[in-house]
């Protein structure tokens, strides 16, 4: 039994790291493309295709009783998905991609612990230390943006402020997505079933916001949208769902701290961006805390 638990944890951690790698690659590419395309055009097409794809596999299982008692969790998961992804892709339009992902992933672990406190769960001191460390790292990154010392030189305008708030909101939404996905998984839902039913809200809102301009942008952008959908949405989300199934909520959120460091190095190939020492310090701190968290999880399973 212990050997099986070690194996499933290894599978979960590996899936989380691979998901982070693919996500970071797609973020850098998307951040460049979205400057000329409405954000919600991408989210509508991308998540519609993703939902259709996973629906095909979900229906093959024919499990009719899984909806009983789980409708509320599906609705909450859809709401959390809207907060997470629509806020995230909006923020990428105005803020450095590495900082957007860092703020999203960094605020998550602290919020997980706050939820655990309200649930009256026992929390080791080391987890509090790691979560507070991520909060400090996020503060450093926000200062980098506000002071104009991030990789993207920009003025502190209202859209930038909203983008920073959206980035933090993404972190809270990501935690809620993890919680409700885990509940569905524990209720017998497969990875495909969860991914097929979590995007109704984001699809509806995206198409409602872009129905009048949809065909103006569709033909000239469908090829890269499809590429990002497969490599940057479908595959990473599938791997992330596997990680959620086998790892704790805190570890899922901490492992996502790999995304900013990967994104930071991938974005060095983007000529629009310049080297930012402050961004590097904040993102590196998040990466170190993420590695520490994964090590502690692995150690606790071994014991």
Automatic annotation (TrEMBL):
Entry's transmembrane regions: 41-58, 74-92, 98-119, 126-146, 158-179, 199-218, 224-243, 250-269, 275-296
Membrane topology per the record?
Answer: Multi-pass membrane protein
Q: Which Pfam families match?
A: EamA (PF00892)
Reading the lineage from the top rank, the first entry is: Bacteria
Sorted alphabetically, the keyword list is: Membrane, Transmembrane, Transmembrane helix
In this chain the EamA domain maps to: 12-142
Q: What is this protein called?
A: EamA family transporter
What lineage is on file?
Bacteria, Bacillati, Bacillota, Bacilli, Bacillales
Localization per record: Endomembrane system
Extract the SUPFAM superfamilies matched here. Multidrug resistance efflux transporter EmrE
């Amino acid at each position: 039994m212990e050997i099986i638990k070690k194996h499933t944890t290894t599978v979960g951690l590996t899936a989380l790291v691979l998901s982070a790698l693919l996500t970071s690659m797609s973020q850098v590419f998307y951040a460049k493309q979205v400057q000329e395309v409405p954000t919600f055009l991408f989210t509508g097409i991308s998540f519609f295709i993703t939902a259709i794809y996973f629906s095909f596999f979900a229906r093959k299982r024919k499990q009719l009783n899984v909806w009983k008692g789980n409708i509320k969790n599906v609705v909450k998961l859809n709401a959390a998905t809207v907060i997470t992804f629509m806020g995230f892709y909006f923020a990428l339009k105005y803020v450095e991609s590495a900082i957007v992902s860092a703020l999203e992933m960094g605020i998550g672990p602290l919020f997980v612990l706050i939820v655990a406190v309200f649930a009256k769960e026992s929390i080791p001191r080391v987890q509090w230390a790691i979560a507070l460390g991520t909060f400090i790292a996020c503060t450093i990154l926000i200062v980098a943006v506000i002071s104009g010392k991030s990789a993207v030189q920009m003025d502190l305008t209202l859209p930038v402020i909203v983008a920073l708030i959206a980035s933090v909101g993404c972190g809270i939404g990501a935690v809620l997505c993890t919680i409700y996905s885990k509940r569905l998984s524990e209720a017998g839902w497969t990875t495909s079933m969860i991914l097929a039913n979590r995007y109704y809200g984001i699809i509806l809102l995206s198409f409602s916001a872009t129905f009048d301009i949809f065909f103006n942008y569709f033909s000239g952008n469908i090829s890269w949208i499809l590429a990002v959908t497969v490599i940057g949405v479908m595959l990473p989300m599938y791997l992330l769902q596997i990680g959620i199934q086998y790892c704790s909520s805190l570890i899922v959120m901490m492992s996502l701290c790999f995304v900013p460091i990967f994104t930071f190095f991938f974005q060095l190939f983007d000529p629009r961006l310049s080297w930012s020492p402050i961004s590097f310090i904040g993102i590196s701190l998040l990466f170190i805390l993420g590695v520490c968290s994964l090590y502690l999880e692995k150690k606790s399973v071994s014991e």
